[in-house]
Structure formats: structure tokens, C-alpha cells
Amino acid sequence: MSDTTAHEEPELIQLLTPEGELTGHPDYPLDISAEEIRALYRDLVLVRRVDSEAVSLQRQGELGLWASLLGQEAAQIGSGRALGERDMAFPSYREHGVAWCRGIAPKELLGMFRGVTNGGWDPHEHGFHLYTIVIGSQALHATGYAMGVQRDGAVGEDGTAVISYFGDGATSQGDTNEAFNFASVNNAPVVFFCQNNQWAISESTERQSRVPIYKRAAGFGFPGVRVDGNDVLACLAVTRAALNNAREGNGPTLVEAFTYRMGAHTTNDDPSRYRASAELDEWKAKDPILRVRRYLENNGLADDAFFASVDTEAEAIGEQVRTECRALPDPEPLDIFHEVYAEPNVQIDRQRSEFAEYLASFEGVGAEGGR
Ligand SMILES: Cc1ncc(C[n+]2csc(CCOP(=O)(O)OP(=O)(O)O)c2C)c(N)n1
Question: Which of 188, 242, 282, 329 is disulfide-compatible with 253, CB 3.0–4.6 A?
Fold first, then answer.
């Protein structure tokens, strides 16, 4: 018996090579203007700048933690810009680029990582759900939401599509596999967008799946596709097609965006302990921003003034993020009881009163009061 599935070379959908050559793909035609490509370039540069500023802020004690998106900008901007206004995204905790596309201000993300907010933003206002730390759970949330969309009759030409973001590690979770199955048997309008960044903290992708991740969709009865996750144009075209498919009532798709986490898992991690630096060098050559810049330059579609203006904007946004982060107000201690239940709750009311009494017991006690 031979086993070829684990070893054959998977097809990678790519429209723009690392050298900046626009090759296109017959299955994913993309009608895009130079202006739109310049706008994508700007998105990529700005989210990278927000991200690097957040890493610095964490290092300086202004944030408790940060999960960097470095290297995954194209996967997130490409898929994020494919979303329609009515669509709903269910992120994990690294989707700062998608949040950017959904109009979430960076300071809202920082508030969460600074620990001064219970949530961050209104999911319905932005079509972008709250960050999820419990790996894989949002695949089920997205599927349930998509089944709701279906029951509301919001599938069809102007329908709503749902997208769930998760990593390669999440594909080992029961929740993710249950979501695949529910979505498939219900033909739910959901796209599963897996950013295969090659690592789940210190576990490599080989430890998650014996076959290329996108091929696992076939076992659940829906299509899977592997896209170059460092190619913003391919990510845009492939996600757009998958969302349209879902919207039109043709069910789920698994998109595996093949990319690389160029930074640490989070600011608590040191990747040099488990992976070789040569691997990073290899992926730096496939940088998602560099290839768009090369394309624009080589084809005379952007001049030095354009690149300089994006850099200036990036510096300004870095400063803005820093100032806004430091100005975020600390929450009142009693805020912890807000938004626990939608309806009044006796237990919560009792706990709030007890805590308020406890806090009041400090009133009038000066620094010397504890002696
Ligand atoms: C249910 C659950 N198990 C374990 C963890 C601890 N944990 C946090 S991040 C992570 C790795 C996730 O890797 P992946 O899904 O590839 O996403 P990435 O962080 O690479 O974007 C793990 C195991 C968790 N948050 N939730």
C-alpha cells in the first residue's frame, strides 16, 4: 500500500511572486486597479507599524502582552479587504490586520492587551467579533452564527458570509473539527481561514497534521484551498471567491493561508529556543510587503513620493498609538461587574455590594493607615 497524500506537493495559489511579478491565476482572476494595490500596500505598512509599536509598548511595561502579526500582514489584509460590510468575522487574538480592515481603532486592541477593558469594541458595529483566546472555539461560534444567518434567510446574491480565523495549531482542536462537520452538513455560509504560520508556539505544523491542512476539508465534504499567505492579492482573490460561494448558498470553504510567524508567538515567547534562524531568513525573502513594493516600483505605478508619504503616515500612526495607549483610562474597580449578565442577577448584585463596602473601608485611610 502506498501513501502519497502526505508527500505530494500541494498547489499554492499565488498571483504575485516574491520578486514582484504579477502572474495571475486562471481560477482566481482579479480585476484590480493600481490605486487599489497602492491602498493595499498602505494597509500592509501601517498595520506592521501599529504592530511594532505595540511590541515596544509591551517591552516598556505599557501592555501586559502582545501577539505580533509580523509576517502575516498579507493574509490578514487580503482576507480582511475581501469582506463585505454585512459579513461577520470571528478572530482569534492575532488578527490586528483584519481588525484594521473592519475599522477597529488600534487603541481598542491595545486596551485589551493593557487589561483595561472587558471586551474592546461592539462586534455588530464592526462585523468583527471579540478576540478569542480559547483556541479553536471561534470556529464553532462562527459556524453557529452562519447557521443563524441561514435561518434568517440572509443567503443569496446579497447575502451575508461569515469568516473564522484560526491557526494551524487550532486544527488539532476538537472544536475546529466539530465546526467543520456542522458547517458542512448544514451547508453553512462560513469560510474557515487558517493562517498556517508554521508554528503553534513551539510545535511545528508537522505535529498538527499528517496531510496539508487544506486537504482535511475533503474529509468533511467541502472544498479546501492553499493560498500563498504572503501574497496579498492571492489572499484577496481566494477569500473573495470563498465568501461569495458561502454567500450564494454553496457552503463552507477551508482556506489555508501558507505564511510564517516572523516574530515570537507572543511577547512572552523566545522562538530562538525552538527554531533555526535560517528558517526566518528563508521567509524574509518572501516578505509580504516587499513584493508589493517591488511590483509597484517595477511597473512605475508608484513613485518615491508615494512611498515616502506612506512611511510618514506610518511614523505618525506609531506615535499616535503610543500616546493613545498611555492615555487609556484605568477602569473603575466596580466595572468588573458590568456586562456579566444581560439581565439583573442577584448573585452579581450581592458581590458588587460586598466589594463596594470593602472598597469603602479604605476611605480616609492614608499611607500611614496600614501601620
Ligand atoms: C483550548 C486552548 N488550549 C491551549 C491554549 C494555549 N495556547 C495559546 S496559543 C496556542 C497555540 C496556538 O497556535 P495556532 O493555532 O497555530 O495559532 P498561532 O498562535 O500560531 O496564531 C496554545 C496552545 C489555549 N489558549 N486554548
Answer: 242
Whole-model pTM above 0.90?
Answer: yes
Q: What is the DSSP letter of 193?
A: E
Strands 199-200 and 253-258: what pairing? unpaired
Question: What pLDDT digit, counting tens, does each position of 141-195 carry?
Answer: 999 999 999 999 999 888 999 999 999 999 999 999 999 999 999 999 999 999 9
Q: How far from the centroid of its chain's Cα atoms is residue 30's Cα?
A: 23
Maximum Cα interatomic distance, the chain, rounded to a whole number of Å:
81
What is the 361 CA–ligand 1 centroid distance (Å)? 41
Q: Whose CA is nearest to atom 21 of ligand 1?
A: 167
- In angstroms, rounded to a whole number, what is the distance separating the alpha carbons of residues 63 and 294? 35
Ligand 1: does its nearest atom lie under 6 Å from the Cβ of 271?
no
CA 94 to ligand 1: nearest atom: 21
Instruction: Please state, in angstroms and rounded to a whole number, the distance separating the CA atoms of residues 234 and 11.
Output: 13
| Secondary structure of residue 286 in the 3-state scheme | coil
> Could you identify the atom of ligand 1 that is nearest to the CA of residue 133?
25
Query: HEC profile for 251-272?
Result: CCEEEEEECCCCCCCCCCCCHH
Residue 262 near ligand 1, beta carbon < 6 Å:
no
Q: What is the pLDDT of residues 317-364, one digit of tens each?
A: 999 999 999 999 999 999 989 888 989 999 999 999 999 999 999 988
The alpha carbon of 194 and the centre of ligand 1 are apart by a number of angstroms equal to 13
